[in-house]
Amino acid sequence: MGTVLSISPSSKKTSIMDVESGDAHKNDNKSLKKHSMFVSLSWKKLVANPAKKSAKKVTPNSVAPCSQVAHLNSENSRKTHQTEEKKPKAPIPVPVPTVPEQNGRLGCVQKQPSTLSLLSPRRIVIQASTGELLRCLADFICRRCYKLKELNCGEVIMWFRNIDRTLLLQGWQDQGFITPANVVFVYLLCEDAIEDSVDSAVVLQGTFQTCLYLAYSYMGNEISYPLKPFMSEANKEVFWETSLRIINRMSAKMLQLNADPHFFTQVFQELKNQRDTNEASLDR
Q1: Of the candidates 265, 268, 246, which has an alpha carbon nearest to the alpha carbon of residue 120?
Q2: 270 alpha-carbon distance from chain centroid
Q3: CB neighbours (10 Å) of residue 15?
Q4: What pLDDT does residue 9 have?
Q5: With a threshold of 0.85, does the pTM exceed it?
Q6: Any idea which of 151-160, 181-190, 232-241 has the lowest mean pLDDT?
Q7: Quick one: which of 167, 220, 255, 278 could link to 216 by a disulfide (CB 3.0–4.6 Å)?
């Protein structure tokens, strides 16, 4: 049985386009289905292959059960605890006592190479420079050796300074020996070794230089000193005899001078008084 269609000119174009679009749409759907099927199959294949490769690398023992993890954690904590017990314990800090402040400032001791200031046991402050103490030492020697009428203080001081300068120039010492404390030490030896019966300036100089040698050897900054600046031809025969005699008699006091501040202050005050009480009688 046949069917008759009546199509108007305007609707004919539309229906033909509709038919063509419908056919195109159907063809697109078919191609999309083919592509989607291809993509899905390819994706499944790509995903499946790495999974198989990674599955081959994983062993049954690679992932520990919860009980095994807990056991390992407990073992690690036990080993850590034992290691900490073996380590020596840090000492407990102990507070260190400090010197109390006086009027907001800490007391300090300063080294003064050219001056000396001490507090005697009687709480009397005494101070003097190196030059003042050298003059006091020279005054004492001039007064002790009263038979040497031509002796003056400058000559005695020059004996001392010449030896110190020679040692510096020859490289036997890096710094000068003449300081207030060392002058006090020299006075201690001279007070015992130099006698008032000396009537020769050469003998006096020899005895004085022997005292200087012992002072340098005991109080100096160097390990040893040469004999030539201290030993002259006049006292060459008696140099060591005088040295041994001074050591035997003054060894205890030499040690006491360095160990006992009160004794040092006493000797220092005694040297300081040598000029204060006798300066007028030395102008000869």
Answers
A1: 265
A2: 40
A3: 13
A4: 46
A5: no
A6: 232-241
A7: 220
Name which residue leads in pLDDT, 14 or 266. 266
Which residue type does 212 have? L
- Read off the tokens for 278: 């006798």
């003054």: which residue's tokens? 250
- Structure tokens belonging to residue 132: 């003042």
Half-sphere exposure of 144 (CA within 13 A, CB side): 23
Alpha-carbon span 90 to 3, nearest angstrom: 110
| Direct distance between the N- and C-terminal alpha carbons of the chain, in angstroms, rounded to an integer | 176
In whole angstroms, what is the distance from residue 213 CA to residue 243 CA? 9
Cβ atoms of 158 and 207 closer than 8 Å: no
Question: What is the spatial distance between Cα 116 and Cα 128, in angstroms, rounded to a whole number?
Answer: 5
Cα dihedral 52/57/58/59 (nearest 10):
120
Structure tokens at 60: 């049954």
